[in-house]
Amino acid sequence: MEVNTTAIAILLILFLVMILLRIQIAFAVGIASTACLLYLGLPLTNVCQQMVKGLNSFSLMAVPFFITMGCLMGAGGISDKIIALADSLVGWMHGGLAMVNIVASYFFGGISGSATADTASIGKLMIPMMVNAGYDADFSTAVTITSSVEGLLVPPSHNMVIYATAAGGVSVGALFMAGYLPGALLAISLMVFSYVISMKRNYPRGDGFQLKVFFRQLIKSIWALLAILIVVVGVVMGMFTATESAAIAVIYSLIVSLAIYKELTWKGVWKILGECIETLSIVLILCGTSSIFGYCLTYLHVPDLAATAITSITTNKILLTLLINLILLLLGCIMDMAPIILIATPILFPLAQSIGIGAIQFGVMMILNCGIGLLTPPVGTCLFIGSAVSGVKIEKIVKATLPFYAAMLIVLMLISFIPQITLIIPTLCGY
Hints:
Helices cover 80% and strands 0% of the residues. With 431 residues, the protein is an all-alpha fold.
């Protein structure tokens, strides 16, 4: 295997330099790839061909629909109903509002599929509510941003669709099913740490649990929760594909927001669609340029070289698994989620397979690693949104989040070393 060291250096160093210069990631990927192709003397028609190839995916069509569904449901009066349902379920516990925040994020994440949407939507309601009830503002923000990561694991997560495409056609339905148990484990671990802190700081607890109140809130929230069933049950039962289910879910979300909850107007719909287009343009351009980058990596045998370099350090499966997680965590500190998935998957996935980590397990590992990256400076999107919503300085939030980082890392290690956590539900569903 011939190694073109200069071409690899041009591709990777130019990309990293542009990232450090804060150039938009899609442009950084595209420019670095084009420069590499020019050096190699390959025709620039490859740029157009690979961009079209990267976007020519039926599964990828689900991403715009899932993002639109999340935006419509998020603006259609869903957040307060989800919070009320969570309050009726766990608000009676010590530090009840923290528990409500975590459980609400699990429910809302199943609707929006976005950690940033969760942080903005739930945070605007829960952080002031918690502060007014006597919780510290930094603790309230830390709970909000860390629990938002649950939404990345619980379907429908559009980031799982992106991973499925990057990994070469992994079953989206299997990935959806695989996220439920890790998402629940993450919620439980955050609740345990929140309970300990709440007991130590003597945070208040809510009223006792009442079954009648729970069922009343469940009925009010049922229209929102049905959106999840449309997507998940439809895909698992084979009634339609992930893309078809996403399209149906958008129409359903529109009807619920306009006609049932009536908290969204047609004028608001057009505004939301404009915001969705802005988000989608970034995601889809990135998917196209990342396809060129992936082509260059494959042409230069970078995945094989990376695997050889890493295994030359150690062949121990445990150490290699830890090393893969460490690389993803470090990437999360400097890059956003979608770029990491698109760029790191072709490099690290073959290495993960070589040590017995399957596509489904690796996908959940990657999503959780990227989710933790959303909470770490200097590019922690959820961290900055939480700071903007609460008015608390970044440094103070990071300090308050340290115990929750520990909780998330514990769950990450469980997922990494116990495959059954991610595989048991997909196996039961016939995947």
